[in-house]
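Session log. Operator J.P. requested a structure for one protein chain; no other inputs attached. Running the standard single-chain path with token output.
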Amino acid sequence: MLGFFKRDKNKIAKDGGDHSVDSMELLGEKTETTGKEVKTSLNIPPNANIGQEERYYYQFLNNELPLLKENQISLSGIEVHTEEDGRVLVKAFIRNSIAKGVHFQEPIPLSLLGPNEERLARQIFDLTILGELPPESSTPWLFVFEKKNVFEKEIPQTDWKLAFEVTKSKGPHALDLEESWEKSLADKDKEKLEQLVKTVQPPKPGEVNFMGLQSRLDDEGALHVTLLIRNGSEKNVKLEQLPLNVEDASGEIVAKGVFKLEALEIKANTSKPWTFIFPKELVLKEDADLSKWKAYVPQG
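Structure written below.
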């Protein structure tokens, strides 16, 4: 995604600063380190619609970039432009100093920072569309901040930088068990849940969603539904009241109700299992086919 706004052809320099993070911190890429510094090679995306002159321009800028430490992902600002509609367009190099190709596995929050580290804009970008970043490479890319995500009317043309927003304390998405579950679950069942949380795709940043684990009708006609409540946010989430619908294999709603949870808390970046029991009077279909089912929060 290049060539979105024209550059001043009399100017061959980049205006933005640099921001680098360890690949393990950003992508979970654990690699060996030898202590060497890396000079990244220019990589133009295959679908970039640019001419030879533009290629020379990016090659010149890339040649002037500082060396990176091994195993880093870096953003190096090139230029910034504010559109009449309020959007802010930022060109930057995405640099990979790892000795192998890497992929972004999920959307990443980025901040545009001013001369005093003040946040000028913030937005989550889907960088999975980049595909593979080649080993030890610099890829020019255009980032479009929508007007609603821009916090200042005047964006400085120099002394700014594009930065990854990484919560350093954030580790892999993990299982969090309520104390009652911790005491009642067998070790083998805990291990199964932990393995599930490790292997499934974690929720997107800021997203809270539900994954069905188990459903059954008891002898009294009540429907028991166990869900994994998944919190992809950087903050703890408290659920006080939760409306739920359950559909069976036919797609019909077989139960619906509203549950008061007394501030059930799901910690940041964790998944917590919880069982919801629909009493018989809330079960709408006694012969439900639960070979396939889903539970969800109704809209509206």
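Operator note: DSSP finds four helices and 17 strands in the chain.
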